[in-house]
Design a protein that fits this description.
It is a single chain. The protein is built from 13 helices and five strands. The longest helix has 30 residues. It folds into two domains: about 210 residues, Rossmann fold (3-Layer(aba) Sandwich); about 90 residues, Tyrosyl-Transfer RNA Synthetase, CATH 1.10.240. The strands form two sheets. The chain has a three-stranded parallel β-sheet with strand order 1-2-3. A two-stranded parallel ribbon has the order 4-5. It is mainly alpha-helical. Bound molecules: tryptophanyl-5'AMP (TYM). Tryptophanyl-5'AMP (TYM) binds next to strand 1, helix 1 and helix 7.
Amino acid sequence: MKKRIFSGAQPTGELHIGNYLGALKNWVALQDDYEAFYCIVNLHAITLPQDPATLRQKTLDLARVYLAAGVDPSRSTIFIQSDVAAHAELTWVLSCIARMGELERMTQFKDKSSKGSSERAGVGLFTYPVLMAADILLYQADLVPVGQDQKQHLELSRDLAVRFNRDFGETFKVPDPYIPKAGASIKSLQDPTKKMSKSDENPKASIFLTDDADTIAKKIKSAVTDSGTDIKFDESRPAINNLLTIYQLVTGKSAEECEANFEGKMYGQFKGELAEATIEFMRPFQERIKQFDDETVKEILRTGADSARSIANATLRDVYQKTGIS
Ligand code: TYM
């Protein structure tokens, strides 16, 4: 039997090359060896205000992104979180064993609840990581491929699985994170000390998956650089580190090959080659995304929800049985 993986992304904002290199690229690679479940987490999306019509459209658009990136619906299950009610139901049970203290320590909650003022933050934003744990544990996932920013949430999922198993008997598999060595945290092009983020107000900070060739080239050209002229990986120079990491991932070259390629060259030439390589990398994705019409996507999501539901419901039944509420 193949091992299982589970991952997801929120249908909010525009996906950027950080999402692609930190997550989607690995989802596609892993589907050969694992039974994969890739979810569009629309229940997570409403932890911050969303326009309903836009959310509905973005949910379909995100499914199209998964498909265009190469997630293959004949091998992997693609589905919408709200189509499987067990996600919300297990969240409640897990909320009853999660502790206020451990949720208060979540750095994403602190960031998103306007820097420490939790008074006006939504309760959903606070319990967000519990819903994420429910997503993963329902499918008995062995592995969860994510970027670095989700590591803390994954640790909570593991803690909740261990606690539930201890209190009610062996029920959940304890999932391992899969965080890529290169690309786990692609940084903003304008401030390489911050991660590239969907919610960044400066559009020049991110390369979006929908950006055309000209826009990609301009954004790379205007990316900030650090002092020093060597085109080399260097922990103390976050800007060049970030740009070289992008170059490495879009070309598939090793770190040594990347450095050798630019030995003795200037930033201008490096940025030109980086832009070209990024544009080439994005081209097949951008051509494929036009191929999936709404009806095809909806059909894939319906089939995906059916197979996800049967697995999720079996886990939920077991949980209800063990907790004495069925
Ligand atoms: P989301 O929608 O913010 O991001 C989707 C994936 O992209 C990764 N990512 C990055 N990777 C590298 N560099 C970056 N700058 C960067 N920005 C984002 C994220 O780590 C993520 O893997 N809570 C999750 C969605 C979720 C989920 C789950 C994931 C809900 N349930 C269960 C895994 C398993 C989120 O908001 O991802």
